[in-house]
Amino acid sequence: EVQLVESGGGLVQPGGSLRLSCVASGFTFGSYAMTWVRQAPGKGPQWVSAISGSGTSTYQTDSVKGRFTISRDNSKNTLYLQMNSLRIDDTAVYYCAKGRYDGYPGWFDPWGQGTLVTVSS
Amino acid sequence: EIVLTQSPATLSLSPGEGATLSCRASQSVSSYLVWYQQKPGQAPRLLIYDASNRATGIPARFSGSGSGTDFTLTISSLEPEDFAVYYCQQRSNWPYTFGQGTKLEIQ
After folding, report:
1. Spatial distance between the Cα atoms of A103 and A100, rounded to a whole number of angstroms
2. In chain A, what is the straight-line distance between the N-terminal and C-terminal CA atoms, in Å?
3. Which candidate in A46, A60, A64, A107 is best for mutational testing of the B interface (most B CBs within 10 A)?
4. What residue spans of chain A are helical by DSSP H?
5. Mean pLDDT (chain A, rounded)
6. Is the model's pLDDT at B67 over the cut of 90?
7. What gap in Å lies between CA A79 and CA A9, rounded to an integer?
8. Disruptive mutation site among B21, B58, B96 for chain A (greatest number of A CBs within 10 Å)
9. DSSP 8-state secondary structure symbol assigned to residue B76
10. 20 to 30 A from A16, CA-CA: which of A56, B24, B33, B92?
């Protein structure tokens, strides 16, 4: 069974940093692209960033470029999201999700349970 | 970026009835349209990929259709567990985008 478990969320002040982690199990982690999707309270999901199976290709939405960095450690079956210069509108539940393909995600299945990031002073 | 507009925002129906949910894209996404279901307090769950392909384990009462800019998710006969929020997502262009959702509620 595929399992994705996120951690690292919490309360942070505007301008602060957090690193999210997602530990994967139940599949050959390095053979699949992975992605981060966030969902602000009461809103629809927003795709944030994706990374290829090898980690050589990354993709990001414009609003996080220059602030967030996606990475992965295939030896540890772990996906990361380093978030710097956090803003109030980054407040959301952050989900990691497994992609369908190696080079790019395609669709997302399954998703982890999410970790809440709250940016507030 | 491609904007996905879902309608209606809320759909009130009774168990046993059929449901039709719409997703319209601001430009063609070919058949690269995905549907998810989300229940309160849970992560989204994949239902349909590439417009019309049911994901593993999804009941046959769920079906998807469409191409280009207009897509439909149909639930043939609603079960109590189908009342949830449904989102469409396009994977045709970066950035991937989601619709704002349709809430399917019990009438």
Report:
1. 9
2. 40
3. A107
4. none
5. 96
6. yes
7. 14
8. B96
9. S
10. A56
> How many contacts, defined by CB atoms under 8 Å, are there between A and B?
54
| Nearest-CB residue to A45 (from B46, B87, B95) | B87
Q: Does B43 contact A at CB distance below 8 Å? A: yes
Residue A29's beta-bridge partner residues?
none
- CB distance B64 to B103 below 8 Å: no
CA distance to A54, B13, B18, B74, per residue, from B78 (Å)? 42, 8, 6, 10
Reading the block at residue A12, the tokens are: 């942070």
Q: A95 to chain B: which residues are within 8 Å by CB?
A: 43-44
Confidence band, pLDDT 50/70/90 cuts, at residue A59: very high
With contact defined as beta carbons under 8 Å apart, do A115 and A6 qualify? yes
Contact B44 A106 (CB under 8 A): no
Rounded to the nearest 5°, which phi and psi values hold at A30?
Answer: -70, -5
CA-based angle A44:B54:B23, to the nearest 5?
40
Q: Which amino acid is at B94?
A: W
Q: The tokens of B107 are what?
A: 């009438």
Residue B19 bridge partners (DSSP): B75
d(CA A118, CA A116): 6
Count other Cβ atoms within 10 Å, centred on residue B57: 8
Length of chain B: 107
What's the average model confidence in pLDDT over A50-68?
96
Q: Which amino acid is at A121?
A: S
